[in-house]
Amino acid sequence: MRFASLIVELIRARPLLVFWLVVCAQALLWILVPTLFYASPPGDVAVVLAYGREYQVGTDLGPPLAFWLADVAYRAAGNHMIGVYALAQLCFVVTFYALFQLARAVVGPQYAVVAVLLTSTVTAFAGSGVEFGPLILARPLWALVLWHGWQVIGQHRRAAWFALSIEIGLLLLTTVAAPALLVLPLAFALANARCRRALVSLDTVFALLVIAVLALPYGVWLLRADQFALPALPTTAELGDRALLGLKLFGGLAISLAGIALLAVLNIGRFAPKHHDAPMIARPPVDPLARQFVYVFALVPPIVASIAAAVFGLGHVVGGPGVVLLLAGLAVMILIGDVLYLHRQRLLRSAWAALIAAPAVVVIFTVVVQPWLSRTEVPTSLPAKQMAQFFADSFERRTGKPLPAVAGDPQLASLIALAPSRPHLFLDATPARTPWVTQGDFDRNGGVVVWRAADTAGKPPDDIAQRFPGIVPELPRGFDRMISGRQPLLRIGWAIVRPKAP
Known about the structure:
This protein is mainly alpha-helical and 502 residues long. The protein has helices at residues 6-13, 15-37, 45-52, 65-76, 82-107, 109-119, 134-153, 160-172, 178-190, 193-199, 202-225, 239-256, 258-266, 288-312, 321-324, 328-336, 345-368, 370-373, 384-399, 410-416, 439-445, 462-467, and strands at residues 280-282, 339-341, 405-408, 424-425, 447-452, 477-479, 490-497. The strands form 2 sheets. It has a 5-stranded mixed β-sheet. Strands 1-2 form a two-stranded antiparallel sheet. The relative contact order is 0.11. The model has no long low-confidence stretch (mean pLDDT 90).
């Protein structure tokens, strides 16, 4: 007798309900984990907020949309990081909703849910998904572009043109990788006669106008800032290192797919018990063009993005792993065939749950246990709120004015810039990166300069002393980390640059 668990029956009968349960549960998990276990924002989130509060049309970090949205979310949450974490998970939900809709149009709703379940095990959508920035915001926009792009070129739905044009424009306002990403769907459409017919209409002209209007402000900034130049190509001596970098990045993408590979291996029917009658999930026949569409956008982006990152010496694949791996689960579902047999239902369910929970367990272990095992600093354990409050209050007590800017050690300065008064971040070692504050502005309006103190004397490093020759160091301030463990006390050297009298 064939037995199907409740999960399988829900997938068959209520696929949309299963989708929302899975996606919302994972989003809630990654709102709670950083909120409860991070004392300071992860990754470059503090820098993103520091740039976002300036509302620049463009910066050296790229287009402005992600930075603006981060600042809006942070302020809306009362200057609490939970707003940014919720924004990051909203991006996750929209990404998977667009993926589900694309998959439903290609393989039907039941297979679409399984594709979402597989894709949710990709590690790129787990812990790193809370580090909101351009790479995170690009995920839902790319997913929407693929969904509405398929509606336009595969299903010939004219109504999708308007949404597609807005999504392309917003993607151009999000990441510098957008032009390279958008070349792929354009090339796919031009290479197929059926798709080319969808492009020959007035809808294409109107879409281009919408895209131009959305991207115009950033395009003007690019022209004025002379930012069109690509990074330098590698020299002959660098080719070996760049090739290793490309292999390393592509290997990292492959490791991110380990969860999908594990679930596929566990479901191999050859190793199932004899006389085992597995429940099945069926799908409608797949359009050959849809099959090509999914395979192209599942295989080409990871390969091309890894090669491009190696050529230009980038630290991550172009577009980010969450973008280039988006269709991996859907590609597996197309490869499986028209009928999916679910062997070892209980084992598959447990393995999937373990894959979803494992990144959260790793984060909690790193924050709670690692400080007792190693002296290596955990960046998210720095007491950002206490640091920001102390230096902002100290400046205001000394001068009677709110703290206008903070400089010195970039990591510490970006965290202190999260103080309630939201002081400007001034990267004094690379002032061109923060054009909203110049050295003259800092000397005139005052601010706080911070650095890591090696001892109780608090002498500033030579480079900081040269850029701020008149500063008088204060006694270093010690801060306890969220969990100190074996780590030494965090000592921060600091000095106040008093505002000059008018």
